[in-house]
Amino acid sequence: MASSYDNDLRLNEQGTGDNSGSWGTVTNLNLEMIAEAFSYGTRVIANAAADNITLADGALDADRSMYLRLSGGGQACTVSLLPNTVSKVWMIENATSATLTFTQGSGANVAVLAGQVKMIATDGAGTGAVVYDLLTDVNLAGTTVTDIITANQATVDDIDLNGKVITMTGSSGDTATITVAADGALAIATTDAAAAAANISITADGTFTATGTTITLDSAGDIILDADGADVIFKDGGTAIGTITNASSDLVIKSNVQDKDILLKGDDGGTEITALSLDMSEGGNAVFSGTVTRDLTRGSIDVGNSSGVSTPLAAGGAGTFLTSDGTDLSFAEISSGSSSVVWPSNFASPTNTYTSSGTWSKGSLADDDYVWIYLVGGGGGGARGNPSGYQRGGNGGAALLLYGQAQWFNGGAYVIGAGSTGTGIGTGQPTATTFTLSSANSSTVFTTGTTAGATEGQTGANIFKIIEDKTRPITIGGQVIAARLSATSTFIMPAIVPTIPDQGGGAKLYNSGNGGYTSAPGNGVFGGGGGEGAYAGNGSTRGGSLYAGRGGANNGTTGAVPGGGGGGGNNDSQKSAGGNGNIRVYHV
Q1: Residue closest to 175 by CA, chosen among 162, 163, 166, 185
Q2: Which of 177, 310, 332, 560 would be 549's cystine partner, CB 3.0–4.6 Å?
Q3: What does 352-392 look like in DSSP terms, one character per residue?
């Protein structure tokens, strides 16, 4: 009887009388093939859509190995396990880069993904043969140890692992779900079938830190901040900005950064407003952008009483104003009429003249003695001309006269304006003389200016200002307070300016005169006269002044002190500077 190979390992089944003299060799080969069926083997899969693994008849073959490592390939491949009558178990390792699908007949197939290992079996049923995935629905009793488990879905007790979703089930219908979405987004949700208390609690035996680009607390109910340390601290980049503190059940709101304010903001008709600002750099001053009100009897105001408690002060009678005795506030009668003005007997004869800057002291004068303080700025310098005789005279220094009690000027600082020098063919700007009241009198600044009083509104009668302590009641935010009158009183001056000594043909002004050029230089009553200039060779007289300095003549005459404008010149050496300013004081 001839040898046959009709068995699952394709062993040589020898007939009676076969292989005379070599029967032992064949038997040994069969034993080796049986051992091979329990071994480790390798083979290379073709880089094609289909390939065959065929067990050789009666010969050693790596395809017979129980653990078969398949490499090579490069594309998805259907591998036929032949002959289709073989029933055998393999552990297949797919070491290729693509999926390998194992088939034997028209029955079910098994796909092994790249990089995975599966245990499969064939039933050897011929054309209808089936390939089985043997570890489907495997029950592993006892303890199973592994490094990594990869699965599409796994259930462990009441925990279901399905793709990117972990579902933990408590009592029936009560679940907690952890889901990973796109971009690594993580969602944790709890469900209580009875809609009672599907709470989430996070307890750390130490510090709990939540870090993210944005952290949102969104509650259908309340958000509770419960700090047993008594402080809720707001930080920006690790720096404490603000703190809310429980201090013996008092609620304390604190700005932690030095001198930084607490602001209460809102939206008024679409515009952001700051309703309240607590200024920490000013001892906590409260600044309201709107009206601050409380329930008060009409006409009353809120003041601090002797106990340091806010209390209403009833409205005063008609024609009264709010005043203070240094301790308490009260209403008093308003004085009427302006202070009587006592003029100097002669503005040309001051009590004192000051030519350098300093601080004024009333000396032996009583507080209520009256004085005049007459300021004249420095005159502007003249400019050089050209061969055609164009020369510009400098403008005269501006003037300002202050009148009031000595106490208002005492301790005031004054700065004397110096005469300026022309720059090339441009005239020098007149300089200002200023008088600044002391801080006890609000540090008010008075200046002659540099534009003949035009900028300050002191071109005519307004060069006179009265400083006096007169008050009138005004209402601000529903409260009546005392306010001082403006320091400026109105004088009505003659329309015809007085005769000015040595006056030229130019305009006569109460303040300073302009320098000569295309027109004659101006003349001033209290301000300096304009410097002489010339236009296209036509000379002009220099401007005069009644009480200040006369303007300088062409070709080198400096403006007279105080405040005379410098004369023009044919060259730089002939143009002249303006006269220095000064301050004159008159006791009246």
Answers
A1: 166
A2: 560
A3: EEE-S-EE---TT--TT-EEEEEEEPBPPPPBB--TT--BB
The pair phi, psi for residue 64, each rounded to 5°, is -80, -10
Phi, psi of 391 (to 5 degrees): -140, 140
Task: Count how many residues are written for the chain.
Answer: 588
Strand 50-54 and strand 77-82: the pairing is: parallel
- Is residue 163 over pLDDT 70? no
Contact 473, 466 (CB under 8 A): no
Place of tokens 């305009």: 507
Q: Which residue do the tokens 């047993």 mark?
A: 228
Kind of pairing between the strands at 40-45 and 67-72: parallel
- Does the pTM surpass 0.70? The reply is no
Please measure the distance between the N-terminal and C-terminal CA atoms of the chain and give it in whole angstroms: 160
Rounded Cα–Cα distance for residues 315 and 251 (Å): 37
* H/E run at residue 251: strand 250-255
What's the confidence (pLDDT) of residue 579?
A: 95
The mean pLDDT of the chain is: 83
Q: What is the DSSP letter of 406?
A: H
Cα→Cα distances 416→337, 456, 562, Å: 34, 18, 10
Number of H helices, E strands in the chain: 2, 39
SS3 at position 132: strand
Higher pLDDT pick, 548 / 295: 548
Is the pLDDT at 541 greater than 70? The verdict is yes
Kindly report the CA angle at 369 between 367 and 375, in degrees rounded to 5?
100
The count of other CB atoms within 10 Å of the CB of residue 168 is 15
Task: Name the region of 35 (left: φ>0; alpha: ψ -120 to 50; beta: rest).
Answer: alpha
CA atoms within 13 A on the CB side of 573: 0
Say how far apart CA 550 and CA 516 lie, in whole Å: 13
Q: What is the pLDDT of residue 336?
A: 47
Going by C-alpha positions, the residue among 93, 101, 52, 91 that lies closest to residue 71 is: 93
- Is residue 338 within 8 Å of residue 399, measured between CB atoms? no
Contact 276, 264 (CB under 8 A): yes
Q: Which of 586, 553, 127, 91 is nearest to 349 (CA)?
A: 586
**Cα–Cα distance measured from residue 413 to residue 433, given in angstroms and rounded to the nearest whole number:** 11
Rg (alpha carbons) of the chain, rounded to whole number: 54
CB-based burial of residue 254 (10 Å sphere; 0-12 exposed, 13-18 middle, 19+ buried)? middle
**HEC profile for 89-119?**
EEEEEECCCCCEEEECCCCCCEEECCCCEEE
Residues 6+ apart with CB under 8 A from 364: none
Of 334-338, 364-368, 489-493, where does mean pLDDT reach its minimum? 334-338
Parallel/antiparallel/unpaired status of strands 262-268 and 329-333: unpaired
User: Which residues does residue 484 pair with via DSSP β-bridges, in sequence order?
Assistant: 471
For residue 29, give both structure tokens: 């080969």
> For the segment 276-335, what is each residue's pLDDT rounded down to a tens digit?
888 888 888 888 887 777 777 776 777 777 777 777 877 777 767 677 766 777 776 655
Residue type, 499: T
- Would you say residue 416 has pLDDT above 80? yes
